[in-house]
Design brief:
Number of strands: 0
Radius of gyration: 11 Å
Distance between the termini: 18 Å
Number of helices: 3
Structural class: mainly alpha
Strand content: under 5%
Largest sheet: none
Helix content: 40-55%
Amino acid sequence: MERSLVRPRNRKIIAGVCAALADRFGISRTLVRIGFVFFGLFGVGEIVYIVLWIIIPKSR
């Protein structure tokens, strides 16, 4: 069964965007967070994070 893309209510740091992406694609949460920090240095990471925060629903 395919996992859905939802922000978790636990084990998150800010909004759960990185945790949602990591859980969905089966990779480390730390790796996704480092990726957002890296892309944040170029000014893209923050914008993408905010957009995903709005788009990805919270888990129930």
